[in-house]
Amino acid sequence: MTESDSGTAATLRIAQSPEADALLGRSPLAALVGMLLDQQVPMEWAFTGPYTLAERMGSDDLDAGRIAAYDPDAFTELFTVKPALHRYPASMAQRVQQLCQFLVAEYDGDASAVWRDAATGGELLKRLNALPGFGKQKAQIFLALLGKRFGVRPKGWREAAGPYGEAGSHRSVADITGPESLAEVRAYKQEAKAAAKKSTRTTKTKTTKKTTTTRAAGKSGGTASEK
C-alpha cells in the first residue's frame, strides 16, 4: 500500500482514469513503473500503463518478483499487443523488467522499501537515481511526486527534488491534481521544449557563423589582428 501522510491510499489524477489512478495510489511498484514509462509519450498514456499491464497479467496489481522472472519474449508481447503500452513497447518492456529485477535483488521485490526509511532527501534521491531507467531528472520528479502526493517527506526533500519540489509549481506529474493542473503542466512542458529548441538553433547559428568567419580568415591569410 502506498499511503499519504493521512494514512490512506493516495488519491492521484495523473492517468485521468479512475481505475488506473487508483492503482497508482495504492501500489508503489505501479507508481514507479508509471514514472519509468513517462518519456516520449503523453503522461496519461504512461501512467495508465501499469494498470493495463496488470490486467494483461491477469492481476489487480504488479508484482516485482513475477515480472523479474517472466520470460522476456512473453513479457515484451504484453507491451506490444495492441493497444501498445508505449511508443517503444519492446525497449520499455525490457526496462520495466530490468527495474523489477533490480528491486528483487536490492529490496527483496518491495518497491516502497526504496523510500520507506530514507533519512534525508539527498539519500532518497541517490536511491531513486540508482534505479534502472531513472536519470537525475526522473529521480527528482518522482521524489517530488512522493513528497507532494504521498506524504513521503524526509528532511530536505524539496531541495533534493530541485525545481520540481517547489510548492505551487506546475512542472511535472508531481503537480497534477486534475484536468486543469494537467493542462498547466503540459503547457509548461511545451514551453520548455520550445525554449530548448530555440536555444539549440541559436547555438548552431553562432557555431556556423564562427566556423565561416574562421575559414574566411584562413583563406585571406589570417585575422585582422594577425595582419
Summarize it.
With about 230 residues, the protein is mostly helical. The chain is about 60% helix and about 0% strand.
What's the SSE blueprint?
Layout (H helix, E strand, L loop, with lengths): L17 H9 L1 H10 L5 H14 L7 H6 L2 H9 L8 H19 L5 H4 L4 H9 L6 H14 L7 H4 L18 H41 L8
Helix pairs in contact: 1-2, 1-3, 2-3, 5-6, 8-9
What does this structure look like?
By secondary structure, the chain is an all-alpha fold. Helices cover 61% and strands 0% of the residues. It has eleven helices and no strands. The chain has helices at 18-26, 28-37, 43-56, 64-69, 72-80, 89-107, 113-116, 121-129, 136-149, 157-160, 179-219. Helix 2 crosses helix 3 (43-56) and helix 5 (72-80) packs across helix 6. Residues 223-227 have low confidence and may be disordered.
Spell out the key features of this protein:
mainly alpha; 227 residues; 0% strand; 11 helices
Q: How many runs of DSSP E, i.e. beta strands?
A: 0
Quickly count the helices. Answer: 11
The amount of helix comes to 55-70%
Radius of gyration from CA coordinates:
22 Å
Please state roughly what percent of the residues sit in beta strands, choosing from under 5%, 5-15%, 15-25%, 25-35%, 35-45% or over 45%. under 5%
Q: Which series of helices and strands comes N to C?
A: HHHHHHHHHHH
Rounded mean pLDDT score: 89
Shape: globular
Largest beta-sheet details: none
Low-confidence stretches: 223-227
Overall SS class: mainly alpha
